[in-house]
Amino acid sequence: MLENGTVVLDGQHQVQSSTSIQEQELRAVKHGDSFALFDTHGDVVGAEATPEGVYFRDTRQLSFWRLTICGTYPMLLGSALDDRVDALIVDLTNSSLTNRTCQRIPNDVLHFGRVKFLHEGSAFERLSVRNFDQCAHSFSIELTLGADFRDMFEVRGDKRERRGTHAQPRCTPDGVEYRYTGLDDIERRTAISFAPKPDFISDHKVRFDVSLAPGERKVFYTQIAFTDHENENPTRAYLEGYRALRRGRRDALVGRPTIVSSNTSFDAMMARSIADVTTLTTQTPQGPAAYAGIPWYCTLFGRDSLVTALEMLWYDPSLARGTLLRLAELQAVADDPAADAEPGKILHETRLNEMANTGEVPFRHYYGSVDSTPLFIFLAGEYFRRTGDRESIETLWPHLEAACAWIENAGDRDGDGFFEYGRRNQNGLRNQGWKDSHDAISHADGRLAEGPIALVEMQAYVYGAWRAMADISKARGDRAAAREWRAKAADLKQRFNATFFDEELGCYILALDGDKQPCRVVSSNAGHALLTGIATQRHAEAVAARLLEPDCFSGWGIRTLARGESRYNPISYHNGSIWPHDNALIAAGFSRYGLQDAVARVFGALFEATFYFDQQRFPELFCGFGRRHGRGPTLYPVACAPQAWASGAPMYMIQAALGLNVCAPDAVRFDKPSLPAFLSNLSLDGLACGEASVDLDVQQIGPATSVFVRRAGKNVKVAIGI
């Protein structure tokens, strides 16, 4: 279908890249509204439809960057991310070379060290070169470069009939500049400057002629600016940017607890996850909020950002505060069918790119998610319980009331007391729960469900929202309102369990369609009903047992759709794949009902899967094939990595395993704590509670789990429920 000059599939704008991200082992760095995907050499060598490049505000500002030595590609020694600054560190050496004067340079005598990072709308690189030979060598360093200014949705696979205008590249003695004026009349620029100045420069080629004595080292700096700057010296700008990033990373750790365990592989996984959430966190005017993921979703997403903040809440509540305040600022205040916006609704997605600005895609400020709004209220309640921050809650209060009004009115589209979605813009998302691909919600015979659709998890999230409003109302002194919210929650819980639980399936159904016919499909969505407490104990135990059956549990995690369902496809996005955040939310639900053995199975499976992932990093999702001896999990070809709510999943798993709840001002509680089999000890130092903190050791001694308090701040009370 062609709409507004853009080819879309049923309004989905699905990722249609013809190249697997996984096979390339790309390296991602990010800062603010910029991110980059480099190959292991630190280069950008992809084609039009591949995601490599440096992006600013969802536009690819640098599409080609290739380093050669005397026309030959250097050999890779190592490539890793430095979490202290979120920089890519690459070590290279030379193969046997012949220089411009036909002199031979033996292999492995030159070392090339690259450091690449982003800061404040610029990309930086430092290239250091050292001669380890016993004699002098002269050689050339060449850079091939280009900027295509392709919109992210083009890179994802959308086709456009028209594009903007490229200006002729402009060369200067110390760099080159590319400019593009989009159909939105915004001029975008990529200004590249070098120090020292190159010996040769053209539109797409730069050369440095280098001579090194034995043991000599030289350093070259590059700044690639996407915003106007006053001809900064690249060397000074690099050093200032590096120091600022290092300082920012140190500051981000202040107030966070230190997590150390008996398992060094687990510690490495946790360090990677914490670093990735930190990388994806962007400082907004209202505070920190996590962008969803690189490369396809490096922007604020209501649902993803809220879930990430929930996963990280016990560890770092500042992320929840910033997320809530930012989404409150962007809350819909008017009715706009083109954006699926209605007063009180919480944002789904925001974009700053050309195609969003022109309306070719509807995502400039798009509100087409049904669950962001109740999750906003639910997180506010959890944040208040965790911190006791009355000031922020008072700021949020009118936004919470507006969100509740949307749920009760527009959120119940047919007036049956359950909560549904139905898009109003045919160019928008067909499905508006977290499984938002066009074929994610279906009946048992494979027929796609028609709306308005009442998802199982939406009812659970609304239940959590009503309970949150009750708790906040009580704290604000309005006991009558608190009773009303609790009554609403209790009524919804009773009707939900009577309608959504299917005794024959042994599980909650996926959804009710527009005719109120049940979608009798076994899916991971059912596990979300346990997260907020809407399930009965009997139903929770049944759901846990059902989701851990072999057709649902692959051995690496719980599938989004049970094997044997009509639309089951382990390579699909939502119909049989495995999502770490989905499993983490389910595990948190298991823990709420005291099902710690079920938590341990899910936690253990996901942890063991990380051994097979690049850098032990959880991807957005992976395929749902069953676990086999000698084989790791199967990667999904275009999964984001890092992805915020996937990176936050291990943190939520720890909370679930420990049954950990931190309640301001002074209570830390463990309900049926149980470490998974791969851990015998877990230490949490500096866990904040109100104005104080506590240091704890959790130890597994035979079948028993013990919690030892090594240090407790004034008045902090630690309790253990068995």
UniProtKB/TrEMBL annotation:
Species this protein is from: Qipengyuania pacifica
Bilayer-crossing regions: none
Domain of life: Bacteria
Protein name listed in UniProt: Amylo-alpha-1,6-glucosidase
Annotated Mannosylglycerate hydrolase MGH1-like glycoside hydrolase domain residues: 304-609
Signal sequence interval, chain numbering: none
Domain Putative glycogen debranching enzyme N-terminal: 29-221
A Pfam family that the UniProt record links to this protein: MGH1-like_GH
